[in-house]
Amino acid sequence: MFARIVAAIIFVLLYVFSMTGQEPVIHPATEHHDMNSDHSHADESPETFLDQIETHTASGTSGEPSSTPESMLMLHKGDWSFMLHGQAFLTVQQQSGARGSDKLFSTNWIMPMAQRRFGRSTLTLRTMLSFDPATVTGRFYPELFQQGETAFGKPIVDGQHPHDFLMEIAALFDTRIGERTLLSFYVAPVGDPAMGPLAYAHRPSAAENPLSPLGHHLADSTHIADDVVTVGITHRAIRLEASGFHGREPDEHRWDLDTGKVDSWSGRLTVTPGANWSGQYSFAHLTSPEELHPGEDVLRMTASISYNRPVAAGNWANLVLWGRNRSLSNGMVANSYLAESTLRFKTSNYVWGRIENVDRTSDLFAASTSAEERVIGRVQAWSIGYDHDIGIVPHLETALGAQATFYGVPGSLKPAYGSHPAGVVVFVRVRPKGMHHH
């Protein structure tokens, strides 16, 4: 009951903000931006890659195609612009097979942000909050073949952990050091270092999917990290970044702020050859990232390509992603491959799909955190879903939807999971409503 009450609170917060602000806006991709203007440009379209970086509507310092629409609520007070992103799912899940389960839960986040221009520079203050610790009871929700982190001191298997209440507290400063060059700084007690693509919770290609990817801990689990410092330089369509941060992932106590020394690093190269394209390659040394395996350092590589295409009365967002972990303790290598796509059409309709091919390890059967990890098979997952905005609350996109996931199981795992496990979710989704045009 408490989880349902907190889920209702976040829905109400989104609604109250929507009723107090101006008409919500969306960043289109066609208006011109004057870089020498002293007016805040948060409500203007990112015409170039540099403009897109300065708007900081994504998590951390990640880049995405400039044509990507961003729905938000906005207020202007003096020289400041205040914005709010957010999304919440209320989900019922049913899974088949011997290890399948069912649950009612909510995943959610809100991202308040403030921006101000100072001549050729931009200051952005941003935080991201999630009530997952209250709305995901039992410290995880069911998801077949998912693994990573702990609950009540035991490994989470066939389940996804909730986000921390404090997902991000960050200050960003960007300054133009030339007509086509941008120098950027990012400081966050908790935030997202320069590693991997845009985190799954914020990707347009995954915006309607209420479940995390199986490859989360092989690709974008660093999107909540402690004591992050990032410096980046962007010239025309190329961006190079370096980060230092605390490598241990957040513990299972999700309401507090974890801290630690800067003991890990990452680097990321992002290239945007056109308004509809963006690609990144990143490499990181993570110091003891998993509480399951203390003292085990990991080298992580990721590469991804994003393609976004505005269409009549909608948008088409796509991502292909590869992630790889290599343990420096035992040499174990695990890979994940993902392709996902979301099409918005006729304004109020969404259809999406996700395909994954992911290595799974012996942690699926670990009874404690001390067992040595090894790869025991590769799992495939195919998801397809549809939802429709029903428009019952002003200034909110409220949708009813459903998704089905089917799994391909290697022989080594069939005795435990069966040959053809599957899962179905039915959900309500809400987020601030923008004017979706390009």
Write a compact overview of the structure shown.
By secondary structure, the chain is mainly beta. It contains five helices and 20 strands. The protein has helices spanning 2-20, 49-55, 132-135, 216-219, 414-417, and strands at 25-26, 71-77, 80-95, 102-118, 121-129, 141-151, 154-160, 166-178, 181-191, 225-235, 238-246, 264-274, 277-286, 298-311, 314-327, 333-345, 349-361, 375-389, 396-408, 422-432.
What does this protein structure show overall?
There is one protein chain. With 438 residues, the protein is mainly beta. Helix content is 9%, strand content 52%. It has five helices and 20 strands. The chain has helices at 2-20, 49-55, 132-135, 216-219, 414-417; strands at 25-26, 71-77, 80-95, 102-118, 121-129, 141-151, 154-160, 166-178, 181-191, 225-235, 238-246, 264-274, 277-286, 298-311, 314-327, 333-345, 349-361, 375-389, 396-408, 422-432. The chain has a 16-stranded antiparallel beta barrel. A two-stranded antiparallel sheet has the order 6-7. Strand 4 and strand 5 (121-129) form a beta hairpin. It is globular, with a radius of gyration of 21 Å. The protein starts with a helix and ends in a 6-residue tail after the last strand. Residues 1-45 have low confidence and may be disordered.
